[in-house]
Amino acid sequence: MSMCAKESPVSRYKVVVSDQVFPSVDLEMSMLAEIDAELLVAAGGVDDVLAVAHDADAILNTYLPWDAESLSRLERCRIIARYGIGFDNVDIDAARDAGIVVTNVPDYSVEEVSVHALALILAAVRKIPWADQALRRDKWAIDEFRPIRRMSEMTVGLLGFGRIGHRLAEALTAMGVGIIVYDPYLSEGPDMPELVGLDELLARADIVSVHAPLTDETRGIIDADAVAGMKDGAILVNTSRGPLVDLDAVTGALRNGKLSAAALDVFDQEPLDVTRIEGVPGLVVTPHMAYYSEEALEESQRKATTQVIKVLTGEEPDYRVNP
Q: Is the pLDDT of residue 9 over 80?
């Protein structure tokens, strides 16, 4: 009499991580186990991921692009949950037409990004990176760093005024900094900073800090013409999305002295080809890290997984982006 191996029970749901960027997915696995969902981690390009995810009920996504063609190959997917704030790597309309909910986590790193933007602003205004480099070359003098402006005498122009812009404005206002805002989706209110047009913001601001989503309207919004419209000696900061800013226009303006400094955490192409910034004066760069803290990472994983659980169990998600 032969003995048959006992088959493993089939999970109720199949969830796939399309591109794993976290130290572990133990949190997701434990949360999904509560609804009898199996979690698989895929790797590679779209075709490699689809080999695993074509029959998934849900996908947890970071950077992998999902266009209409790849979405059409998902046989029963009900939700693509992005770990981050932006969702420009997913064709929102095609997902809606395919009956797939798309969610993001718009509030997971508000503190981190606003603090990073503030740190970049302060570093550029106080010229800390260049002072550090000079001192390491045994230069004990401030002559080469003149002029340095008083923060409370400066105006910061915020291009975009969502959660992160609000948080940054609070910190800057506490330091006595003047704030102006360009955001075409807002109207004047009693607790709002001064709203201005884009051209006026560029012309008036000593520091322009970019906090807009990446859309067809905002892509390349800081181009050569926009840089030319900024104040002579202004500072540009970008911690939002790289393609909003024309990097070559900014580096050119730094080389010719139009801008006194720029501080960038994101770039039009990532990872950054560092040959594009070699020898550029007045430039501070960080490797797309503004979003990061240990706490923010855990919050992103927990909230994205919560969206999956809600959709798979028939609840409305918290952060749906394609109604």
A: no
Clarify whether residues 89 and 216 are in a common domain: no
Instruction: Examine the residue annotation and report whether 54 is marked as an active-site residue of this protein.
Output: no
CA distance 44 to 64: 9
Domain of 17, in residue numbers: 13-108+294-312
One domain, residues 81 and 211 = no
Catalytic residue among 217, 270, 298, 315: 270
Mean per-residue pLDDT, 238-264: 98
Per the annotation, the verdict on 241 as an active-site residue is: yes
Task: Indicate whether 102 and 114 sit together in one domain.
Answer: no
From 149, 163, 255, 288, the catalytic residue = 288
Annotation says 116 is catalytic: no
What are the DSSP calls for 61-119, one per residue? ESS--B-HHHHHT-SS--EEEESSS--TTB-HHHHHHTT-EEE--TTSSHHHHHHHHHH
- Answer yes or no: is pLDDT of 5 > 70: no
